[in-house]
């Protein structure tokens, strides 16, 4: 008998459904998407398999465990190699048996009991791919189980097999011999009856990846996204929550309650005053930012599950190559439009340290998160289209310039663009809602406390008279170089605590008519380029360490201010007023 | 079995990057290189004997290899030698 639970490692190629299997076995949700590289860290969960308690370990997708390894591949290899796993369950996409078998051969070298799961058996059959599981099991000497993980099919068999995993009877082979063996074994156990390329999915896949149809589709997708997030989320829902729910409901009620029951002015002011925890902190977090974050994550989840986002990599590859990256970088960049903190974590899918560093800097510098994006749309949309174009032109231009220079200045390599395109699928509503809820919960848990801390800090600064001092220190820069009203300094202080928080502050300033068109554009440009929010900064520290993080901070701050200053003077010199 | 055919002149191996959309063939050889691109391709199933079909050539090369759809930049396409069918 073992003194500890049986450790079961789930290993497999990217995008074969490891996280779905993990969720089915443990009842826990690991982020599931339709593109390679969703799992960037090891997730553990406990499952009862028969009478035995098991620790299930979900690992990032791997293409190989020998030779040149990516960060993910090293993590997965470590789990299998260092005695962490008692049993290895390899999850395979039944359609891509050949690739899976190369991995099986490599895993066999670790001499651990194994089970091979042929997942996505339904999609394989629909494509006319049929695998003889019994024969495969006999040839490998391990149990082979067929599953459709999203529907839970084949899981009774899988649970039963975990305790009877066997060490594969395969000789060690070198790379060449291994791929020949995998090729031949695939030929013996797999039958392909027809390769139907005329299915609806294939047509959609082609339409979105060819420039002639793909670029118009991209424009439509972006516009639809704008309508849903920028108009429905940022305007309709925000107006409903901010004006009706908070403006007429919660805030007056809280104020009335405080006036009656809290005799101490200081505490009352702390809760419901100008910088009150409820009237400012909670209102910003729930009424202004939450609707935007939720609608963005819904759209993003739909796009990632449909297989659309990886196809954007084909268009963007050349552009990213000029910036020392490759098309793959489109994934963290698009995710950054939702939340830069989350996106910073996803840069691990990039192959080299240089690429990861450039991507992290570009995310921090130029990619506005959903809350900021909504504020930008909300403020500038009301001014003019030219104002919007100016802001995005400056920010994207700055990003490109920084990327272009970084690609040449930083040491290290760019990796070649080789990307697997996942099949086009209709997203499952359940996965979409679970994923969105999980992300919103993450936002509430991570961001809202920071909002409240920010509000409290602001309150204290205000009490101590420090806001006036800070504003005075910042005045030469804010009013002189940037040509903004002095109050903006205070918004920038908020922006340091959290970018979207600062953005929401600007929103208030603009709406109360304290900013002109030029001032709005300049302030938002600086805010977009400015220091990442605290959460993002902490994530950068986690990924790259303090030294690099401080260097990034020390680089971005002057870039943001100087760019804003230049923009201010150029706009004024040419007499542009939007 | 689909063995590698090099003999017939009609199927003389050519770089994947030189093939037009719609062409299919069998991978004859993946040129080794220092940066490890070949290993990556290998891991994704682009190995000698694999059936490929070019789906698109611009802005990047998109091809189907076995049951996997892959997008690569031109420089990577130079490394994969395909015997067209």
Report what the structure shows.
The complex is a heterodimer of chains A (578) and B (85). Chain A starts with 5 loop residues before the first strand and ends in a 5-residue tail after the last helix. In chain A, a hairpin with a 2-residue loop joins β2 (43-49) and β3. Chain A contains 24 helices and nine strands. Chain A has helices spanning 18-26, 71-81, 97-108, 121-126, 133-140, 155-162, 175-189, 200-209, 211-261, 265-272, 277-306, 308-322, 330-336, 340-346, 353-365, 370-380, 385-409, 429-463, 466-481, 488-497, 499-511, 517-529, 534-544, 546-573; strands spanning 6-12, 43-49, 52-58, 87-93, 114-119, 129-131, 144-146, 190-192, 418-421. In chain A, 64% of the residues lie in helices and 8% in strands. Chain B has 85 residues and is mostly beta strands. Chain B contains two helices and six strands, in the order ββαβββαβ. Chain B has helices at residues 37-43, 74-77, and strands at residues 14-15, 24-30, 51-56, 61-65, 68-72, 80-84. In chain B, a hairpin with a 2-residue loop joins β4 and β5. The two termini of chain B are 15 Å apart. The model of chain B is unreliable at 1-9 (pLDDT under 50). The interface between A and B is large, with 41 and 32 residues. β9 (418-421) of chain A pairs antiparallel with β5 of chain B, so a sheet runs across the interface.
Q: What is this entry, summarized?
A:
The complex is a heterodimer of chains A (578) and B (85). Chain A is α/β, with parallel strands linked by helices and 578 residues long.
Overall strand count of chain B: 6
- N- to C-terminal distance of chain B: 15 Å
Number of domain modules of chain B:
1
Elements of chain B, N to C (H/E) = EEHEEEHE
Largest interface: A-B, 41 and 32 residues
Helix content of chain A: 55-70%
Mean pLDDT of chain A: 87
Count helical runs of chain A. Answer: 24
Strand order of the largest sheet of chain B: 1-6-2-3-4-5
Low-confidence stretches of chain A: none
Average pLDDT of chain B works out at 85
- The Cα radius of gyration of chain A reads 27 Å
The fraction of residues assigned to DSSP E strands of chain B is: 35-45%
CATH superfamily of chain B: Ferrous iron transport protein A (FeoA)
Low-confidence stretches of chain B: 1-9
Under CATH, the topology of chain B is which?
A: SH3 type barrels
> In the CATH hierarchy, what is the architecture of chain B at level 2?
Roll
Class of secondary structure makeup of chain A: alpha/beta
**Through-space gap between termini of chain A:** 76 Å
> What percent of residues of chain B adopt helix (DSSP H or I)?
10-25%
């Amino acid at each position: 008998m073992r003194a500890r639970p049986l450790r079961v490692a789930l290993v497999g190629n990217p995008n074969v459904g490891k996280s779905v299997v993990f969720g089915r076995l443990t009842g826990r949700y690991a982020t599931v998407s339709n593109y390679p590289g969703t799992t960037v860290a090891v997730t553990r969960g406990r499952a009862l398999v028969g009478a035995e308690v098991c620790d299930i370990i979900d690992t990032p997708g791997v293409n190989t465990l020998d030779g040149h390894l990516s960060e993910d591949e090293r993590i997965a290899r470590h789990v299998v190699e260092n005695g962490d796993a008692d049993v290895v369950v390899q999850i395979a996409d039944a359609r891509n048996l050949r690739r899976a078998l190369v991995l099986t051969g490599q895993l066999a070298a670790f001499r651990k009991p194994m089970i091979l799961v042929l997942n996505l058996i339904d999609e394989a059959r629909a494509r006319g791919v049929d695998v003889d599981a019994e024969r495969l099991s006999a040839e490998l000497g391990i149990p082979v189980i067929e599953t459709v993980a999203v529907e839970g099919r084949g899981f009774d068999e899988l649970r039963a097999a975990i305790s009877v995993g066997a060490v594969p009877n395969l000789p060690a082979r070198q790379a060449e011999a291994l791929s020949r063996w995998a090729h031949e074994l695939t030929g013996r156990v797999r039958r392909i009856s027809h390769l139907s390329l005329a299915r609806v999915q294939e047509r959609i896949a082609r339409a979105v990846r060819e420039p002639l149809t793909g670029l118009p589709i991209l424009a439509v997708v972006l516009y639809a996204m704008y309508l849903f997030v920028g108009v429905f989320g940022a305007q309709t829902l925000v107006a409903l929550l901010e004006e009706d729910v908070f403006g007429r409901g919660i805030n007056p009620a809280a104020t009335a309650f405080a006036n009656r029951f809290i005799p101490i002015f200081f505490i009352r002011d702390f809760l419901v005053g100008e910088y009150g925890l409820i009237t400012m902190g909670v209102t910003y977090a729930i009424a202004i930012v939450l609707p935007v974050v939720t609608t963005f994550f819904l759209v993003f989840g739909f796009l990632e599950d449909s297989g659309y986002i990886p196809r954007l990599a084909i268009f963007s590859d050349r552009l990213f190559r000029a910036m020392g990256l490759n098309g793959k970088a489109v994934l963290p960049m698009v995710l950054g439009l939702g939340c830069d903190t989350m996106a910073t974590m996803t840069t691990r899918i990039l192959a080299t340290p240089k690429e990861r560093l450039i991507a992290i800097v570009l995310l921090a510098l130029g990619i506005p998160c959903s809350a900021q994006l909504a504020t930008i749309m909300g403020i500038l949309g009301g001014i003019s289209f030219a104002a919007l174009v100016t802001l995005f032109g400056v920010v994207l231009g700055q990003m490109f310039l920084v990327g272009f220079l970084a690609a040449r200045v930083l040491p290290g390599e760019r990796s070649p663009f080789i990307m697997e395109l996942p099949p086009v699928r209709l997203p499952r509503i359940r996965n979409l809602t679970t994923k969105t809820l999980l992300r919103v919960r993450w936002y509430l848990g991570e961001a809202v406390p920071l909002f409240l801390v920010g509000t409290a800090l602001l309150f204290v600064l205000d009490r101590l008279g420090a806001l006036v001092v800070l504003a005075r220190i910042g005045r030469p820069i804010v009013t002189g170089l940037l040509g903004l009203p002095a109050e903006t300094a205070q918004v920038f202080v908020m922006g340091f605590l959290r970018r979207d928080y600062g953005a929401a502050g600007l929103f208030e300033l603009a709406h109360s008519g304290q900013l002109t068109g030029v001032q709005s554009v300049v302030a938002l440009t600086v805010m977009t380029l400015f220091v990442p929010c605290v959460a993002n900064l902490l994530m950068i520290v986690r990924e790259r360490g303090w030294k690099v993080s401080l260097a990034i901070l020390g680089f971005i701050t002057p870039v943001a201010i100087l760019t804003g200053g230049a923009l201010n003077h150029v706009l004024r010199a040419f007499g542009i007023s939007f | 079995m689909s063995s590698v055919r090099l003999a017939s002149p009609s199927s003389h191996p050519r770089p994947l990057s030189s093939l037009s959309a719609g062409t299919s063939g069998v991978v004859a050889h993946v040129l080794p290189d220092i940066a490890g691109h070949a290993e990556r391709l290998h891991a994704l199933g682009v190995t000698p004997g694999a059936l490929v079909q070019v789906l698109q050539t611009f802005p990047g090369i998109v091809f189907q290899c076995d049951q996997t759809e892959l997008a690569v930049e031109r420089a990577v396409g130079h490394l994969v030698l395909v015997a067209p069918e």
